[in-house]
Amino acid sequence: EIYFRLKAELLQDPAFDFTDEGRQWIDRMLDYNVPGGKLNRGISVIDSYKLLKGTELSDDQVFLACALGWCIEWLQAYFLVLDDIMDNSHTRRGQLCWFRVDKVGLIAANDGIILRNHIPRILKRYFREKPYYVNLLDLFNEVEFQTASGQMLDLITTYQGEQDLSKYTMPVYRRIVQYKTAYYSFYLPVACALLMSGENLDHFIDVKNILVEMGTYFQVQDDYLDCFGDPEAIGKIGTDIEDFKCSWLVVQAMAHANESQKKILTENYGKSDSACIAKVKSIYKDLNLQNVFFEYERMSYEQLISSIEGLPGKAVQEVLKSFLHKIYKRQK
Amino acid sequence: EIYFRLKAELLQDPAFDFTDEGRQWIDRMLDYNVPGGKLNRGISVIDSYKLLKGTELSDDQVFLACALGWCIEWLQAYFLVLDDIMDNSHTRRGQLCWFRVDKVGLIAANDGIILRNHIPRILKRYFREKPYYVNLLDLFNEVEFQTASGQMLDLITTYQGEQDLSKYTMPVYRRIVQYKTAYYSFYLPVACALLMSGENLDHFIDVKNILVEMGTYFQVQDDYLDCFGDPEAIGKIGTDIEDFKCSWLVVQAMAHANESQKKILTENYGKSDSACIAKVKSIYKDLNLQNVFFEYERMSYEQLISSIEGLPGKAVQEVLKSFLHKIYKRQK
Ligand SMILES: [Mg+2]
Ligand SMILES: [Mg+2]
Ligand SMILES: [Mg+2]
Ligand SMILES: [Mg+2]
Ligand SMILES: [Mg+2]
Ligand SMILES: [Mg+2]
Fold it and tell me: Which distant-in-sequence residues (6+ apart) come within 8 Å of B313 by Cβ?
């Protein structure tokens, strides 16, 4: 398993003189936070690279693509560890959030930083001599900057000042999702595969825009499933309503509601009382948000397919279509 | 003022679609956290670069050296914002810690991340076409990794499990200080100047080791002044004793104390009660730690000078000596 190889090398990194205690801490922290996700982002690098190459990959090429995939998983772990602290969350991937684990506490903030710092260590070890090394560093830096900026927007919109639903509009929603989620989850894996294939990312702005659109669509699904999905299938019980999340559903609800419905939403959104949650859900049903979502899903799909088919290059089209078909009408 | 130019450019960064609110947030966050330090680290880049070049610098060269100096100040701000959260500190540089400012709270953790992400934005804007660009990225990445690793050691030594003074030994102390402080405060500025001068850092391992030694000496002074310095001169009242810090003083005290003195230290160190603090200080005096420090200071100075004079290259020697003379016998 490549994860174990990467971890073992990080724990022997000559740039730091580990104590046994320190090595054990990092070992446990990595096992707790890095694997255990759906690995979608990581797998996308390999799948995209295969489609772009058009031929079978050598063992070495597969290894390098996997290493980049794992870098994205490390990036994700870094964002999640810190996001859970800032959101004061309780569970993640079916276990306690790392900062809530006994004797961890706010050391978790520095662990997030360590996770982030592992990425350039991995990149340097395996890609230092590649012609695209500097582009890889620039790519990870730019995408991290965008994600942190999206996170800032999310935080100042959600937490700063009083709870005020009128701030949750479609342009605000789209901007948060685009930066906070879409760049690193959808653009980054494909961009890694493009760099490995020797491409110049400046020539793939359209591809980037389509992937960011797809990432937005993915997050809308996530928000929909949080309320209307099957908890068995998604593996958790949604809490967006009580958490006062800027969810696509509440944005649509506020956009479609009449004054009395808006009042009910305002009075009940963001409260953990189950009667309040039920009132919000009943407004969602009265406004037929399930159908609004199905319509949005159909339109997004059609627009994405037509954008993809407008691109030059069959290989790139295939990459994007396979990505889209993995997520279209997903139930989890 | 170069800081204002860098800030203005970051607030117009085309990689992120700022809202007015978001721009104001970052503007205020930067002004609160980035300037206002002693700027030692930033100034060191320019001073070192001048000495290495041996000739007057062009306006452009001065600007670039300043930009790198500010990158180090940004890095410092990032570490301090997060460190204050993790240490649950109250004040920093004579003002409230950023996370304690009204309506900031844990958004500060993401602000720390944003500060960190500004560095590659500045580097890309001004250094992308320089032959040493990739080395600059590698350097900042490696030094950040070492600092975060040192911070981890500090955190798991200080916070994990019960307060136990017997963990505070000289090797533990040296390792924490070397990684947490010396690399970024002492090695990084000189390494930046070396890269700008076209040098290969692999040929300056001895210089690195001397600077890390100097950084350790600097931190020992810092720990000494926290207890024995003039609060007027250093601009704050030390709190290392009540904070259960792994300070050079307590490490020396534990190394020199007899059993009954150890017992008193163990019972009183890390308590905010002023009677406890007084008991610790009186043991420091009984053990004559001021003289132990003066002796350490003299020996460090002599060893550093002799290491410096053993180096090839007069310009490098001058850089290190000027650095050393800035800190030798400092009172603040
Ligand atoms: Mg969250
Ligand atoms: Mg969040
Ligand atoms: Mg969700
Ligand atoms: Mg601190
Ligand atoms: Mg600290
Ligand atoms: Mg101090």
Answer: none
Distance CA A14, CA B69 (A): 27
Query: Which of B228, B225, B190 lies closest to B207 in space, CA to CA?
Result: B190
> In angstroms, what CA-CA distances link B168 with A191, B253, B266?
47, 10, 11
Which residue out of B149, B168, B169, B208 would a mutagenesis test of the A interface target, given it has the greatest number of A Cβ atoms within 10 Å?
A: B149
Contact criterion met (CB < 8 Å) for B19 and A175: yes
Cα distance between residue B60 and residue A291, in whole Å: 60
Torsion from C-alpha of B74, B75, B78, B80, nearest 10 degrees: -100
**CA B319 – ligand 6 centroid, Å:** 25
Q: Flag whether pLDDT at B159 surpasses 80.
A: no
Structure tokens at A298: 């159909």
Q: How close does chain B come to A308, measured CA to CA in Å?
A: 23
The reply to whether residue B120 touches residue A113, judged by beta carbons under 8 angstroms, is no
Return the SS3 of B92.
strand
B277-330: per-residue pLDDT in tens?
A: 999 999 999 999 999 999 999 999 999 999 999 999 899 999 999 999 998 888
CA dist A125 and A262 (Å) reads: 55
| Residues A124-170: tens digit of each pLDDT | 999 999 999 999 999 999 999 999 999 999 999 887 767 889 999 99
Do residues A107 and B160 lie in contact, with contact meaning Cβ atoms separated by under 8 Å?
yes
Residue to test with chain A: of B25, B101, B110, most A Cβ within 10 A: B110
Separation between Cα atoms, residue A163 and residue A165, nearest integer Å: 7
- Predicted confidence band of residue B161 (pLDDT cuts 50, 70, 90): low
Global pTM value: 0.95
**Taking CB atoms and an 8 Å limit, are B86 and A107 in contact across chains?**
yes
**Cα–Cα distance measured from residue A235 to residue A229, given in angstroms and rounded to the nearest whole number:** 10
Which residues from A are below 8 Å from B106, CB to CB? 85-86, 88
Give backbone dihedrals phi and psi of A92, rounded to 5 degrees, phi first. -155, 130
What residue in A sits closest to B19 (Cα-Cα)?
Answer: A153
Mark yes or no for CB contact B137/A142 under 8 Å: no
Distance from CA of A54 to the nearest CA of B (A): 31
